[in-house]
Amino acid sequence: MAVVKRAGTLLLVLLALWGLWEGYRRLWIETGWTKPFVVNDTTLPHLHDIVGALFESPQEGGPLLIDLLFHYALFTAKEAVFGFAIGATIGFLLGAVIARFQTLQRGAMPYVVASQTIPILAIAPIVVVGLGSVTIAGWTPVDWMRVSVIAAYLTFFPVTVNTVRGLQSAEPAAVELMESYAAGEWAVFWKLRVPSALPYLFSAFKVAATASVVGAVIGELPSSIQDGLGGAIINFNQYYVLNPENLWATNLIAALLGISFFLVVVLVEKLVVRRAPEQLV
Known about the structure:
By secondary structure, the chain is mainly alpha-helical.
């Protein structure tokens, strides 16, 4: 029954979104309103046309659009997973060090926050193109690895902030109790502080998972990668006036990829975090 209720809720939400989309489109076309933008078949296609475009071929005799976007999504997912792993690891380690030393929390956190104020579109070409000229022991990062750095850049910040907050959320009385039993600093860290921080960490992972997909797509733009969703967006953007549905369909697949990343984190959270923070401590 719970599954049926969730499926019914999802269906109702989708129908509501479809109604709002089509209602907004029809009202603006019939009234001739032009604010905030002119609504027509180019600027706001029918939803059924966007979905229908997935089952048509963008080129005569070629594969269906949904087949192309599926392979593009797998390539972008590889970049996002790699970037998420790097960013989450760096974020956790950095957060653990900052939480341990109060001086670093006052001195380093402002720079961590400031790192996220730089527009990602300005950093992406510098990182992706610049790393292409870097050679380490005769090895140069391939294009998709360089893109993963952008995904990691967007990932590490929420993990760092929530790691600091989570590690400091352990009850002082629980810490004193473990120390009274001669528990070492590492024992307190792994057996008390990390379990207490898990709810905070997974909250950060949910944000970071979707951000990694965004970073991967943006990172593909300056690198001229044609195998990912970023390359598909550039390609279909050039022919937007002729076939706007293709670009909208690509955006739909990119959104579904981000949602799938989010759901994976939610599933892992349900398997790992089974008790409330106050019960953990």
